[in-house]
Amino acid sequence: MTDKLSIPAKEEQDLHIAKHIEPEALPAIIQPVMALAQSDAEKDMLLLSLLTAAGSCMPNLYFRYGLTGKKYYPNLQCFIVGSAACGKGIANLALELVSKVHEAQPLVIAGDSSYPGFYRQLEKQNGRGYIHESEGSVITDVWRSSVANYNTALRKAAEHEPITRNRANNSSVIACPQLSVLLTGTFSQYKALVPSIENGYFSRLLTLIINDQQAFNHQYVEPGSGSNGVMRVAAERLYGLYEQLYFAKPMEFRLSDEQRARLGQHLENAYPMLMRLLGSNFHSVVLRMAVQIERMAMILSALRIQSTDRFTDRIQTGLHCSDADYQTAEMIGNKLMLHMAAAYRMIKGTEQPSVPAIQPIDQRQMLLSLLPAEFETKTLLEEAKAQGIPRSTVFRWNDIWVQQGKIVKLQHGIYKKAI
Q1: Domains in the chain, start-ordered, CATH in brackets?
Q2: 154-211: per-residue pLDDT in tens?
Q3: What is the distance in angstroms between the CA of the first residue and the CA of the last residue of the chain?
Q4: pTM
């Protein structure tokens, strides 16, 4: 007999991100830009691209993390993996977003740079920069020369660790590099950049995998239409934010006590399952994801700063994260962790097609493992939202868990995991 509560495979392999975020929940500055994307895949690529690019334009903004209170800045390093026909070109809108800032203050650094050239440019820009390359091979081709390989510099920049240069007649140190990186390319280009799971860059490089193929679109842009107007306005608004932060005193971003506790507990609960499924080499991804989530929450919060905030207490006392922005950042981080798990499996594989079949972690199993031994429906829905799982889907999953004996219904809205 057919199980009426069987789950379509696609429900357990839903790796899309933006479709789980209400458009109005995003900062107003990027809402019109996001509207330019047509498919779920394009929305995911565009969202990650915009956050990465915007973060490169936020000076004097930081948060503290860890027992030492180390400062972290809003700089993401990301690689979008996809085939030639998946629509990766939409990520180039991120370059338009930073264009006004770059005109006023050089920001963009070419990926096709020798190490000395890369270092000099980053040094000239006071350690701040944005690398944007639509073909990952631009960097990997350059890196084949030991003189041009700045892989170590990118790894250090991801943690804001000093990058040094020592020559017989000259030596210098970039004490605190703040570098954002956005790359797109095929899996073979990605693997050339991250050749093994032991490579330290793997856990520092957020990875988004796109399996969708872009449908043929025969529409033509009419004169005066297209993305130009939208991007011009967004670039102007981002420049206004950049100016505010540039002339402000260093500003600390803070999660609330509840948000900080949630972040720590959530990753602590996910850790054992991910280690069991993927092995100990994946542990650095989980540990670093806490920093990545807080970076994204900081970028989202900063994008909400308005020109009228210049002299308000909000700016003077630091930047605080709303629950909505925290929830958005956490969900994005959770989804990206599944993408990185898929990348982890692909790197370990022997085949190197342009985009191998994704083998994501079973989200239903992940959700159940993250729930406490006894939980209420409210807790279930909150955790599902953080994982980007629709409300209707999670209720169906809950019924299946009861049917399979994995949980027991104690009373209305209260359940207990079966021992």
Answers
A1: 13-217+224-348 (3.40.50), 363-417 (1.10.10)
A2: 899 999 999 887 765 677 899 999 999 999 988 888 888 888 888 788 989 999 998 7
A3: 28
A4: 0.85
For tokens 């043929």, the residue is 216
The residue to which tokens 């905030």 are assigned: 309
Question: How many secondary structure helices (H) and strands (E) does the chain include?
Answer: 17, 13
pLDDT per position as a tens digit, 75-86 = 999 999 987 666
Cα angle 81-383-301, degrees, rounded to a multiple of 5: 65
CA distances from 173 to 72, 113, 152, 155, 355 (A): 18, 19, 14, 15, 39
- Residue type at 268 in one-letter notation: E
Q: Counting every residue, how long is the chain?
A: 419
* Full 3-state SS string of 264-310: HHHHHHHHHHHHHHHCHHHHHHHHHHHHHHHHHHHHHHHCCCCHHHC
Structure tokens at 378: 């409210």
Cα dihedral 254, 257, 259, 261 in deg (nearest 10): 130
Chain center to CA of 227: 23
Q: What are the φ and ψ backbone dihedral angles of 283, each rounded to 5 degrees?
A: -60, -35
CB 319 within 8 A of CB 61: yes
Neighbours of 169 (CB within 10 A): 4
Token pair of 125 as six digits: 């820009």
Total Cβ atoms within 10 A of residue 316: 12
> What is the identity of the amino acid at 72?
Y
305: CB partners within 8 A, 6+ apart: 241, 244, 245, 314, 315, 319
- Which DSSP string do the residues of 174-187 spell out, in sequence order? ESS-EEEEEEEE-H
